[in-house]
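TEACHING EXERCISE
Course module: macromolecular assemblies
Task: Read the component lines below, then compare them to the predicted structure of the full complex.
Student: A.B.
Group: 4
Components provided:
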Amino acid sequence: MTTRSWWRHGESYRMSRLRTKNSPLYIGGIGNDTNTDNELSRQWLVHTALDALEERLASNNSNTTGANTNNTRTDLRDLYLGLLYSTDTHKIYGYVTNTRIKLVLVTSSTSPSGSNIRDAEVRTALRRLHALYADAICNPFHLPGDQITSLKFDKQVKNLMLNNV
Amino acid sequence: MSFTPRSLATNVISMRSSVSYILSHAPGESVMSHPDYGQHAQHHACLLVLVKGIGGMLKNFNKLWERIQKVNNIKVTDSSGQVRDIWVRYVRDYPVENNDWGDFQTHRRLLGLITLSKFTNQIELNEVCRVHESLKVKYTNTLYDSRAFMFGPISKKPEQEPETYSIFEDDKTSKESSSLGEKFSLPSDQADSLSSAESYPHSSSSTTSLPIQEENYTTPSNFKTHAMFYSENDPVTDLEQNVADLINSLFWVVESKRLERSREKIEKVSLLLAPFEKKDFVGLDMESRNNKKRCMGRVTKNLADLTLQSGLIADSLNLYHNAAEILKAVNDWLWLAAAKEGLCAASAILLYPNLRNPTPLQRNASLQESSPNKTKPLSLFQPNIDPFKKYKLPSSPLRSSKTSSPVNPPSELTPSSSESLETSSRQSETDNADTESLASSSDIEYQSQKSFYMSDHPSIPRQPSQINNQYLLNGEEIAEKYRKAIIHYSKYQNAGIIETEACFKAARIAVEQNNSLHASSFLQNVIFINLTLSEQEKIQRFDTLAELYKEIGFLRKAAFCQRLAATRQVSPNNPNPDWQRCYYLMLHSFPGHRLSLDPNYVIQHQVGWPALQIQLLQELVVAARRMGHPALATRHMTFLLQTMWPHLSRQEHRDLAIQLQALSAQCEGGPVPLVLETGEVIPPANLTHVPRCSAFLPRPPPSPRAPHMLKCKPQQGPFIFTPIHFGSLERKARKDEGKMEYLWVEDDICEVQMKLTNPLPFELKVSNMRLLTSGVVFESIPETIILPPDSPTTVNLHGTPKEVGELQVLGYSTHTLGVKSNCRLKNMPTPNKFLPSYTIEVIPSLPTITIETSVAPSGSVSLSSLENVGSTTNITLYNGESTECTMRITNTSNVPIEYLDIAIQSNMDSQLQSKVFQLSNEDIQAQLPIPPNESATVTMKLYGEADFLDLGGVGGENLFPNSLTSNYPSRVGSPVPNVQSSLPTQSSNAQTSLSSGLIPNRTSGSFRSSNSHTTSWSAPISVMPPSRGRQVEAQVIIRYSGGSGKEVHCRQSTLQINLELLPSMSITHWDVLPAEIPSQLYLVLDVTNLTSEEMDFHYTPSKHILIESKESCRVPVPLDRCPFNLTSRTNEESNSEDMLECKSTVTGSSVTSVEELCSAHVTEHVSLSWQLLHSETRGKASVKGITLSQAMIDIVRMSPLNWEVSVNKQCIKPQEELNCTAGECLSLGVGVWNHLRRPLRQLCLSVQFYQDYNNGVHTYKLDNRLATAGNNKIVLASLPESSKAYHECTVVFLTPGEYKIDIQCSTTEPVLEDIPVIGDTDHPSIIQPCPGEVSHVWRFIPPVAISVTD
Amino acid sequence: MADDILFDLLHSEIINYALEQSKENGNKKEVDLSIVEYIGFAAGYKIMERLTREWPRFKDELDTMKFICTDFWTCIYKKQIDNLRTNHQGVYVLQDNGFRFLTNFSNGHQYLEFAPRFVAYTCGLIRGGLANLCINSVVTAEVQSMPSCKFHIHVQRT
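Instructor-supplied answer key:
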């Protein structure tokens, strides 16, 4: 049985002034190892992934401005940033919305079918996730910048993951 | 051995080739097991020299070590006159295994050895020499040359001899030291001397035999090293020279090797092998074309390495390229990788020269400046510094701005690069110049030297730029090549360390390029390489990773690695766990976790990843504890609880709290910053969540203690702090920045109320709670409380201000879970917002009192100090009873009471109140001031003031038989306006009296029963009928002050007095009767005893009567009639008596005035007192407020006319029966005195006879029954004041019977307003005296009665 | 369309309500529209997530502004901004010649003094949207002759 867990991390802004908090808006996962230290280790993964993610953004911007860009990224303006990095156990994908919300997706690098998950797969998943998030923040009970506690959202995300496995 | 090209083209992220470990063999191969993380790409070009201290520790070893390190680059002019610039890398120790890779990458060979040793005697010297030799043996197969610096006690130099032994070395050194010019010429001639083959063995290998010195301290015979002897604290001025000398010789060896290699026959080269490859090639025929090429490739690569090391970077590029080509052809991945790496290294060296660590530069400069004399020996190496100087310039912009695109260096490498370099070199000249400016004048010619020197300097970079810049890689290519190389390495398990190092080198270059993504990807790759490393090496690996990640701004990654390193430090399979290091690593990973050491900062901006922060903090706590620094552990645990509180579950709260308790048991946490050995300061962490404070509010003093403004009226006193009012105050206070509107008093207990909640599931003990204040001195009283879980409890903190002025209450301090915290309001965690501080004004101290009240007879004492506020005194009084209440005011403070003011307020109207309560202000003031602990006594008189006249009170009617009442008017000859008003029937009389001037009175008193209607009108309304008890509630308000603040403020305490007035007796009815003496009258009272006891009722000084409980009896009270003078005197407003008179008849107003006079007269002359026999309570009573009808008034007042009626010359008294016989002639004399002070005019005196049938029927038709002689009616024109008129007539009664004589006298002036016509009377009026002019009638009452007998 | 007019009506009612409130709070004559502005801000902030979902990452500020002028505006007002001008120092002027909230009741100068109320919400909308796109700005509107309206966006560079 594969353990594929997805993580979502938000970087949000206070409404008054744009202060980045870099604290998770929502963390969810599926998979059969849900014991805490694993969870923690995965959070480490996501956390450290943020560096690469931010750097990716920065470099994109600098590249768009700067002269040479034989960067490996396909489309700099794509919200989907692709694989941020991978460890021997996990792959970490990144996706940053126009509103600088960061979606980070962690999958186990080995899936039972041996073949790794395809990039497109991840891309669509993250796009869906983004859509869900866009709905979630329209929830009047959600204060921008707070953790998302809506059960509906949670359920939707879980479904999304399951369907994408 | 083929792998999918996909993995070659694999993306940035994973450089792991999918085909892993081709050619990999079982472990246990000779694997280079000591990674060197510190390696840079440019080290490929360095000569490796080991510097070791042996023997006794040198005290100035480090200093020497630094000096040696500075000599890391010398220029040598080679045989072809070309200046090589040679770089050196010094290491303190070097695992010999790494030497094995020397063939693979020559820069891994340890070429030189320098030992710094200390000896004190021969034995030690021998030992030192032995060690040195053994070191030489250890690295024997790579070592080219070595130096031994020996520091011994001897000052004289036995080693002069060995110095002198080798001529060229000696004079070389001498020359070097002597003149620079020769120095630069020197390498050349030395070159040709050296280039001759026979000189190799001499300088290259240590087998060169040095002649043994036969001095004292002779080195052992087997010691064959160029050794230099110094005394312990010799400045060793020639250190640099000697080192340079060593390097020089090393260079020549390398150079020779290079030449040798380059001259080799390409056919018959042996196969170079990486250590682990040995087995792979056994049995392979070297003759196969493939392997030939392999050999060639490898050799070429090796040559390239040497070339690079010997300073011919450009050539090395070339060679590397070729090698790569060849090796690629034969799929020799490992060496291909090496070649590529070499290519990158060479390119990097050219592109990023400042990578050659510029650190020694500053030191050198400083050294120069510090001691000019040093510049002499240094001057030799001055040139070495230039490159740094030069490269520093381009370096600075590159490193400084992260945004600057990483491709600047390649642009320098375009053919114009040489110019750019030249310019930079020129710049270097200039700034050399200014560095030199502070050197001594001896350097001038050196200056010139330098200029010459500089001129050919650019030759180094020029070559690559001109010759083969096609092989020179630009930034991107370097990264790419490195990536490829690493991928190739990754195919060989045993090359793990090479790969790792390659990654680091690549990363460092990427950092130089400011290409963080590349850097990160390289670093990321390091993680994948699984090596069998010692814990220490793993830690180093993570350290290096962390540091590099930091450089590219990947703080989180860095933090992550630091944490891993930290955990390694103490991992179970670490032989010697180092908690200290672990702790610091974790501590320094704070920024990466977006944590700050300052809890307030963390709380204010909740940034970062709570779950991870919590994890980290917990580990940090453990580390701190194991490190043996409990204070830190406590501090961090507190920090964790405080900052992460919102992110923790209830269970975690509980657990952490318990842990904290355990920790603080070892060392208490306090609100003081902790300073670490490293100088870092851990700011205090205060627990504001445990307990949670939901409300914090300074309280005004309790009302008796509360200071009042002296000016404000006492009425307001008690109401100032009604809750509502206070609420509004509170709200206002919140608006204006916590400035409280009430005052606190110096030296007086003040209170702050707070609501605390214990969020933990177990009982929490908070001890030593105090207030944090600033401003005036404040003495806080520590509180200790036990908080049950989850139930908000209100806690009051107390303290006493010790000064006058402004006091700010900033917060509170707690001591719970073994942690002392200062919880400042401004740092309170949001949900509940607090003001940053509360400001309260403190006024000078005021006295305090206790009041002791005792009521005289009952002696009931009640003490009211400040504690039991508003103590009430209950007093019961019978109406008319009076008692005394003494208040004993004791000054309980140590401030004298200098102001005391007692006021009473009650629910009575004020003048009544003044009757009930009486106290004298004078004697109060007399007792001031009251010194501390003294007391003053104030007496207050209480009188059961009441109105004893019962108006229709209990059973007003039935107390009197109707008969009595009915004939009252007849007996009391009530004034009859005119004759016909005296009507046969009483009832009708009432009517007539109605029609008379009494109308207004009547109407006013209409509610009264007919019998004593006179009393009815104007009964005092304000007082309740005496038949009921009354409750009087009164407050005695005592305002007092003293001390320095007495002019402004005072205290006030109130004393409640509940006075119950019981009914004692009441006067239900009253009437007046004329007494025997005309000057007197009887006031007849119906007195009812309302008490439950027998009452002894005194109505005159002499007379008294016993009245049973609830009984009533009638008592006559003799009174003097109200004298006229009094009357006239008293009513000043009605100037003229007659006006009074005439008014009195008709208009009620003046009548009342007269009536007031009379009632006042009566009131003051009637003194009633009662005594309850059973309980000796005695009291007074009065008829205050008694009302008198017109008739009564006439009786009460002395009439203006005095009658003197005489029959047969003998005066008759009232109620006297006269007898005579029919036919007898009686002479009736009537004398009238006028007591008025003015004459009466038109006075009509009339005498009328009538018969009274005693059935209410009078007959006036007596014509045949009597005969009168003389006028029975005369009119006096005027009767002057106090004069007498006399009229006499005679009468003869013809028939016997009962006769009566009605003597009356009426005045007819002035003409009055119309009197209501008496039409209703059926009786014709007999007398029409001056009709319509009757104003007032006086009668002689009672009428004279005469009984006639036969 | 019915829903459009519904939006307009709701908008105007909200404004009336806000005015009432400010009256009750005893604000002297000057009308307090901050609440309306804030409503706009919140709405803009939230809707932006949705609108930019399918949109490639913005190259720069100007790109963002263009987005505001086109898609953003269309989604809300069923039309595009007619004219965008900028001084490349963070000041942008968006001109809408037929601003929807004004077209309803006036063209010309009638009610001109009341115009500000009807642009407050939109100002907030823009500000909120930009805020969510990490552009801190101050948005003011000016109406010279209705129904055209200019929105001035001053980007706050920190």
